[in-house]
UniProtKB/TrEMBL annotation:
<comment type="similarity">
    <text>Belongs to the plant acyltransferase family.</text>
</comment>
<dbReference type="InterPro" id="IPR023213">
    <property type="entry name" value="CAT-like_dom_sf"/>
</dbReference>
<keyword id="KW-0808">Transferase</keyword>
<protein>
    <submittedName>
        <fullName>Shikimate O-hydroxycinnamoyltransferase-like</fullName>
    </submittedName>
</protein>
<dbReference type="GO" id="GO:0016747">
    <property type="term" value="F:acyltransferase activity, transferring groups other than amino-acyl groups"/>
</dbReference>
<dbReference type="InterPro" id="IPR050317">
    <property type="entry name" value="Plant_Fungal_Acyltransferase"/>
</dbReference>
<dbReference type="Pfam" id="PF02458">
    <property type="entry name" value="Transferase"/>
</dbReference>
């Protein structure tokens, strides 16, 4: 289902912002400080780009440099507004990470792969993406790689420092970069104001005095309080983390949502479980079935974006938060014994999902989280879901779901058309799994789901629910 191939880097350089900028330091917000130093990858696949219609008189065949040049020029222009991405991380006198906005630039690599687009095994990104199509970041906070394939297609891959940008921020940059690269690109001075990133850290300043709800102590933990790392023997193959990409049909998603609401499962306002809540509940049940032992605790967290929650009563600040560049995330989670998750109905599990989500979808939650970080500085903090949750002795697996429903794949057109496929790629190396459902490029309400989970969990999901989670193939994408 794909073939092995070699990627050869032909050229490496550094792209800096097109305009000179004042050297300065940009502090990380309190919410940035909750992120460990991990990188996140994203990639976009494009079909044959060697022949592009450029005039009414015909076509012109382009060589790779003709495609790369506008990409680099547009990147240099985009970095004028997104200047944080051209900087580098340093440590300040308090021992905390801080961004030095020195326009050191972004690593930009041109590469070639001896494989055709249709032969990429997208179902197994560990084989075809990791270390090949998504670059390893050598310095700074962003790296870019353009890989030309022997069929004339190409892949644009990026790697971001998560401490600088969440998915919302990265998406904002990617769309702006693509708009700059198109022949009808706006100039720096006429670029849409709503696309200009906001780096105003004061929007996430702690309160004086602060107020911390007790629930936050159950959800987050300072690094200084982390339990000692357990010593393990060789990791069983069953527990090794691997990445897979599936597609889920609209009909299956609707069926799952219907089951999640099958017992009049509504809240006090009569609101039924959403598609995401239903999907998360279904996945939680499935992963629980792969656990060894009914008493084992299986945990699931869901990433919540706080932009719409903060300042929803202040139109000016609401607009600024809409373009805020940085991390505005919280990760509420639930932990249940395998016995409860497997023996209760999907509707019951969906209610549990809804209840723990409710704790983190308010303005007060995010303001309190900012205050919580301030109270523990300079010690960094971490969501407990990433380090064993509530501390039960019989501690099972954990995973986090991050909704990628705003993934702007269709907008990442650099001038040669929309990508035929794109996805985030996040084999982050932690002890918790990661799942991101995104809209399918095929449309029709389907989802594409990136999963980074234990091998045994994915094998169980495929065995039990192969009719729901189908391996991503080019045949599906072309349908």
């Amino acid at each position: 289902m794909g073939e092995s191939f070699v990627v050869t880097v032909k050229k490496e350089e550094v792209v800096a912002a097109a305009l000179p900028m004042q050297d300065h330091w940009l502090p990380l917000s309190n919410l940035d400080l909750l992120l460990p130093p991990v990188d996140v990858g994203v990639f976009f696949c494009y079909t044959n780009t060697t022949t592009i219609i450029t005039t009414t008189t015909g076509t012109v065949t382009t060589e790779p440099p003709a495609l790369v040049r506008p990409l680099k020029e547009a990147l240099a222009q985009a970095l004028v507004s997104f200047y944080a991405l051209a900087g580098e991380m340093v440590t300040n006198t308090a021992g905390e990470p801080e961004l030095h906005c020195n326009n050191r630039g972004v690593g930009f690599a041109e590469a070639a792969a001896d494989v055709e687009l249709r032969c990429l095994n997208l179902y197994n990104p560990d084989e075809c993406v990791e270390g090949k199509l998504v670059p390893t970041k050598k310095h700074g906070v962003l790296a870019v790689q353009v890989t030309f394939l022997k069929c004339g297609g190409l892949v644009v891959g990026c790697t971001f420092d998560h401490r600088i940008a969440d998915a919302y921020s990265a998406n904002m940059f990617l769309v702006s970069w693509a708009e700059m690269a198109r022949p009808t690109k706006p100039t720096i001075t006429t670029f849409p104001s709503q696309a200009q990133p906001c780096f105003r850290r004061s929007l996430l300043s702690p309160r004086r005095p602060g107020y911390i709800h007790s629930s936050l102590h159950d959800m987050y933990i300072p690094y200084s309080n982390l339990p000692p790392t357990k010593k393990h023997g060789p990791e069983p193959e069953f527990n090794l983390f691997i990445s897979r990409i599936y597609y889920v049909k609209f009909e299956e998603l609707n069926h799952i949502q219907s089951l999640a609401n099958s017992e009049s499962n509504v809240d006090v306002n009569g609101v039924k479980r959403t598609k995401l809540e239903s999907f998360c509940a279904f996945l939680w049940k499935m992963i629980a079935t792969s656990a060894k032992g009914k008493k084992v605790i299986t945990r699931m967290g869901i990433v919540v974006d706080g932009r719409k929650r903060l300042y929803n009563d202040n139109d000016k600040k609401k607009a600024l938060m809409g373009s805020y560049f940085g991390n505005v995330l919280s990760v509420p989670f639930g932990g249940k014994p395998v016995k409860e998750l497997t023996e209760n109905s999907l509707s019951w599990v969906a209610s549990e999902v809804h209840m723990f989500l409710e704790t983190a979808v308010t303005k007060e939650h995010f303001l309190g989280l900012i205050d919580w970080v301030e109270a523990h500085r300079p010690s960094a903090g971490l969501a407990r879901i990433y380090c064993g949750g509530g501390g039960e002795e019989d501690d099972g697996s954990a995973f986090v779901v991050s909704s990628g429903q705003r993934f702007p794949e269709s907008k990442i057109d650099f001038g040669w058309g929309k990508p035929v496929f794109g996805s985030y790629h996040f084999p982050w190396g932690g002890d918790a799994g990661y799942v991101m459902p995104m809209p399918s490029p095929v449309g029709k309400g389907d989802w594409v789901v990136y999963m980074h989970l234990q091998k045994g969990q994915l094998e169980k999901i495929e065995y039990e629910c192969g009719h729901v989670f189908k391996p991503l193939t080019w045949e599906y994408l072309k349908a």
